[in-house]
Amino acid sequence: MSTPQLSVVIPVYNEEQGLHALFDRLYPALDKLGIGYEILFVNDGSRDRSAAILREQFQKRPDVTRVVLFNGNFGQHMAIMAGFEHCRGQRVVTLDADLQNPPEDTGLLLAKMDEGYDYVGSIRRQRNDSWWRHVASRAMNGLREKITRIKMTDQGCMFRAYDRNIIDAINSCKEVNTFIPALAYSFARNPAEVVVGHEERAAGESKYSLYSLIRLNFDLMTSFSLVPLQMFSMLGMLISVLSGLFFVFLVVRRLVIGPEAEGLFTLFALMFFLIGIALFGIGLLGEYVGRIYQQVRHRPRYLVEAVLEQSEKGEEGSGKGKAAAPDAAETAPRKARAKAKPAGDAAHPSLFADGEE
Predict the structure, then answer these.
(1) CA atoms of 333 and 343, how far apart (whole Å)
(2) Which of 159, 174, 242, 356 is the most buried (most CB within 10 A)?
(3) Where are the beta strands (DSSP E) in the chain?
(4) CB atoms within 10 A of CB 6
(5) Are 297 and 326 in contact (CB under 8 A)?
(6) Where is the segment annotated Disordered (predicted)?
(7) What letters, b where the CB count within 10 A reaches 16 and e where it falls short, cover 153-184?
């Protein structure tokens, strides 16, 4: 099978309401580019009919459509990592399935890469998110840039283009917790950004809660910088010096003025403040230790149950996958996949449409 010039990786999680609208816009937009392409959908353990709809679309366009099926929900970034390990294109574009980023702007990313850039991020022209997400995103962008020294104008936008060298470098990483846009930036030799459109979600609702966004930013901070720990180390030294000076002051005051109880509540307030700082520092240290714990267990980052793709002979195939462990170079080797097995016989239970068995 010839190597396509472009691979589009799309993670899917409970998107059945908007998938048909995505298909109606995505395929014509890529056809207009006039280059060889493939679209790789990664179903991240959807609990609705997303997997069945993806199977139907694969049967309609098996020449350019491939589907990776997880046997559970492992998160957006793990879905993209699986897409990177299975894609074949010389250039790779990641796109969300919610149509907030128009597929028609894919040509803008590729045109920028034609200028010699190996990694192209995107900046949403006019965000249509809720006000709190907009404010939180700007605050985290500023904090992230100061801590990690990674300059991304819009870190929350996953509509990005990667050169094959960047994809190979990402695939060589064994990290359990990571933030793909920042990881790609650290490998890029000549990164750039372009302005793209941003629309309201076509259907459904966002899969990122406030808690998920906070955890995602913890992954970003702890995976790419030790500055938070170093800041607390310096803060601890400063507080130790100030505490020593304050102790000397209290001793001198007692000798000069004598014992007094008027400052008792002030001391309590100061003590609670210092305890709060200590607890926050312990929690931050725990985040780093927790990530080390997850890494050293060497558990699979995700499990691929099946891959729907057309074999080299032009037949539809459904291959069983395997666990993608942190030390595995490739998930579900293509040579081990079954040939000429009907796509409808895939083991994933959600592949069957309503009423099918």
Answers:
(1) 18
(2) 159
(3) 6-12, 37-43, 65-70, 91-94, 119-124, 160-163, 191-196, 302-310, 316-320, 323-324
(4) 22
(5) no
(6) 310-357
(7) ebbbbbbbbbbbebbebbeeeebbbbbbbbbb
Question: Residue 204: left (phi > 0), alpha (psi -120 to 50), or beta?
Answer: left
Cα separation of 116 and 101, whole Å? 23
Are the CB atoms for 330 and 85 separated by under 8 Å?
yes
Amino acid code (one letter) for 94:
T
Residues with Cβ within 8 Å of 110's Cβ and at least 6 positions away in sequence, in order, are 6, 33, 91, 93, 161
> What are the pLDDT digits (tens) for 140-166?
666 666 766 777 777 778 899 999 999
Q: How far apart are CA 343 and CA 221, in angstroms?
A: 41
CB-CB contact of 324 with 304 (8 Å):
yes
Q: What is the mean pLDDT of residues 244-264?
A: 73
Whole-number Å distance between alpha carbons of 80 and 40? 10
Q: Is 252 left (phi over 0), alpha (psi -120 to 50) or beta?
A: alpha
How do residues 270-289 score in pLDDT, each as one tens digit? 777 778 788 788 877 887 88
> What residue ranges do the domains of the chain occupy?
6-224+299-351, 227-296
∠ CA 219-225-231, rounded to 5° = 110
Report which of 308, 339, 312, 340 is spatially closest to residue 321, judged by C-alpha positions: 308
Please state, in angstroms and rounded to a whole number, the distance separating the CA atoms of residues 95 and 8: 7
> Under CATH, which number does the domain 6-224+299-351 receive?
3.90.550.10
11 phi/psi in degrees, rounded to 5: -75, 140
